[in-house]
Amino acid sequence: MWKLRDYWIKTLIRKVRGKRFLDIGCDNGRFTKFVNSLGKEAIPCDIEKRNLENFVLLDANYDFPFESSSFDCVLILDVIEHLYRPENCIKEIRRVLK
Prior knowledge:
The protein is an alpha/beta fold.
C-alpha cells in the first residue's frame, strides 16, 4: 500500500509547476530528497530535529517562520491528525502558499 501511495504522491509532485516546496512532517526526508532531485527546492520541517539540508524545526500547531506567499506547494503527509490545533496549521499553509 505504501508503494502505491508514494507512487501517486511522486506523480503529483512532478505535476506542480512551481519550484519551491514546504515539506511539513518530513520524517527521513524521502519526499524532500525526491523534490530536490527534480531540480526544485524543498524545505524539510518536522517537530523533531532531522539531519537534512535546510532543515527547519517546526511545530505545525503554531505560526510558521516563513514569509507569506513563499511556497508553490506544501506537502503535509500523516501530520494533521496528530495536531491539537489543526485549524492554525491550515491557516498557516494558506498564508505561505502563493
